[in-house]
Every structure is written in C-alpha cells, then in structure tokens.
TrEMBL record:
The keyword Membrane applies. Keywords: Membrane, Transmembrane, Transmembrane helix. The chain crosses the membrane at residues 9-27, 66-88. This is Sodium/metabolite cotransporter BASS1.
C-alpha cells in the first residue's frame, strides 16, 4: 500500500518541507529577525530530521516499508534545502549590501 501511493507520499513530503521553509522564514521575519537569521531558521525548520522518522518507523512497526515515506522525505528536504541555499547564496540581503557600502 505504501509503495503504490508513491505520488501522494512525494507530494506530502514536498509540501511538508516547502511549508517548513516558507513559514520558518515568514514567522522569523514577522518577529523582527534580520534576513540572514531568517534564512538560517528557514533552512533549519524546512530540513526536519527524517532519519528520526526512519528509526521510529522501523523500531515500532513490523513492516520495514513503513520507513519509505521517511526516506522520501529525506530526499525531498535534501533537494529543496540545497536548492534554497544555492539561491540564497547568490542573493545578498539588502541589509548586508548596505553594511558593505558603509565600510
């Protein structure tokens, strides 16, 4: 049943991590943190520990396939996190640009 619902598992994992990245950034900015800190929090929130899910699934369920969604989640957060870090690496926050100009 788990393997036959592959699209749903991938979609759920993708939405979980995308919303983590988005809301981690949004809420930290709303709380007044600077862009650099908000980016860091976004990465931390979006890249939740899927390995913990794998360990818990294999320890508490008899079927080893219960760990498959966690493994898919791990791949998703690795891809999304790397892509987001690459994009943000190329875009310097305005507040950092301003501090470099003042020096």
């Amino acid at each position: 049943a788990i393997l036959s619902s592959g699209r749903q598992v991938v979609l759920a994992a993708a939405l979980l991590h995308a919303s983590g990245f988005f809301f981690g950034y949004l809420l930290s900015r709303m709380l007044g943190l600077d862009v650099s800190s908000s980016r860091t929090i976004s990465i931390e929130v979006g890249m939740q520990n899927s390995v913990l899910g794998v360990v818990l699934a294999t320890q508490h369920f008899g079927n080893p396939l219960t760990a498959v969604p966690c493994a898919v989640s791990s791949v998703c957060h690795s891809i999304f996190g790397s892509a987001l870090a690459g994009i943000w690496r190329r875009t310097i926050p305005k507040e950092m640009q301003d501090s470099n100009v003042k020096k």
